[in-house]
Amino acid sequence: MLFAKRDMTNQGEKTLSQRFTKRFTRYLSSQSTDAAASDNQLIDIRECYELLGEAEASKTKQPSELPHIIHRIVTAYEKRTGHWLEAEQVALAAIHYDIEQQADILRKHFKQTLTNSTELYCSSNTSYLRLALLAEILNIKHFSLGKPAPDSATPPSCERKLNVLLDDISMSEIEESGRKLREHCTQSLMKKGISPDALQACWHLRMRYSDTEHSLLMKCMPIDMMRDVFKTQYKKKYGYIPQDQSILIDSLEIEVKLNEPCKPGMPAENHHVQQIMSQWDSCNCQTNQSWRYLGADVSLINTKLSFMTCPVLKEILANHVARPADLAMSNFFVRNFKKEVDEAAADN
Predict the structure, then answer these.
(1) pTM
(2) What's the longest Cα–Cα distance across the chain?
(3) How far lies 88's CA from each of 70, 229, 281, 338, in Å?
(4) Could you tell me what percent of the chain has a pLDDT over 70?
(5) Distance between CA atoms of 335 and 121, rounded to whole angstroms?
(6) What pLDDT, on a 0 to 100 scale, did the predictor assign at position 78?
(7) Are 192 and 153 a contacting pair, CB within 8 Å?
């Protein structure tokens, strides 16, 4: 009876390993719940644009969760592919994934009017990167903005007549003239309170053959190199090289540009963004409001930007990028010039 009673009392007790297993199981179950919640945490797409330099970050904004989310995405991607991604690549891929969903909304609204002659038009100021990606996904060759880009001081363009033969001047003399001209150009902007550190000067020489009117605008370079480059470009553009004629430098032209950080909606100084925007050309150099498609660089898309369309990364991003609301696309229009159609998504 004594042994029987002892056996009965010990049945309810757990060994050390059993108790540890039970508690560890509870810990793992609670951690898996927390991990699942964090794995499904949504990305604020606006922060992705900020990371790429496409918008100004708010000074009063709460601490961002984007770095933590990107870290989890990078880790998950590395486990499945064996390759690491940069934070900017993840941000760009998230933007691309979000824009693919935006494109689906526009396709439903404008499926009858999306042709090669269609222009994508946005009535509010937005990112040029967003417009470029959206137009490319929709196979649209032209996009424009309804509102002008942020106002800025118009950079001056200065010119000094030289009227000298290329063989009769040295690069040091050109540089001396250029320094004086650049100083004159920058004064007008500095008087408006713009720091000299924010200015960038572009030097060019207006050159032609002595007995012709056709001229080329050449970048400054060593004299011998400039002569060879000028001859090559002249023949390429005009189809011939005049015989027994000297090369004349008509003038030195300097354009002073603002070399400032990217403003909201302006293409960023980011190499991934630059690779995308290099496929587009601004039709209006003053406002950058209208852009046309130059053509896809297949090698660029298949190599340096292939991560944007990677199926594995898109599968991971599906848990972190929310589908945009239809109303969010109400400020987009498409214009088909052949049919003279102007439709708004908000009206459909």
Answers:
(1) 0.53
(2) 127
(3) 9, 38, 23, 40
(4) 65
(5) 7
(6) 93
(7) yes
Beta carbons within 8 Å of 93's beta carbon, 6+ residues apart: 85, 307, 308, 310, 313, 314, 317
CA distance 144 to 123: 9
Structure tokens at 157: 């363009």
Check whether 195 has a pLDDT greater than 90: no
Residue 268 near residue 52, CB atoms below 8 Å? yes
Q: Which two tokens stand for residue 292?
A: 């046309």
Question: What are the C-alpha distances in Å from 240 to residues 103, 165, 208, 213, 235?
Answer: 48, 20, 13, 14, 5
Query: Would you kindly state where each structural domain of the chain is located, as residue ranges?
Result: 87-150+263-347, 157-258
Contacts of 136 (CB under 8 A, 6+ apart): 279, 293, 296
Contact criterion met (CB below 8 Å) for 181 and 254? yes
d(Cα 278, Cα 283) in Å, to the nearest integer?
13
What is residue 98's predicted lDDT score, i.e. its pLDDT? 93
Dig out the tokens for 150 from the structure.
């942020």
Kindly state the tokens that stand for 22: 């039970």
Tens of pLDDT, residue by residue over 239-267, are 999 988 999 999 988 877 655 443 445 55
- pLDDT tens for 30-39 read 444 444 445 5
**Rounded Cα gap, residues 271 and 176, in angstroms:** 34
What three-state secondary structure class fits 327? helix
> 157-165 and 341-344: which strand pairing?
unpaired
* Model confidence at 326: pLDDT above 80: no
Does the structure show a pLDDT above 90 at 69? yes
pLDDT of res. 220:
84
Angle at 46 between CA 41 and CA 51, to 5 degrees: 95
Q: How many Cβ atoms from other residues are within 10 Å of residue 81's Cβ?
A: 13
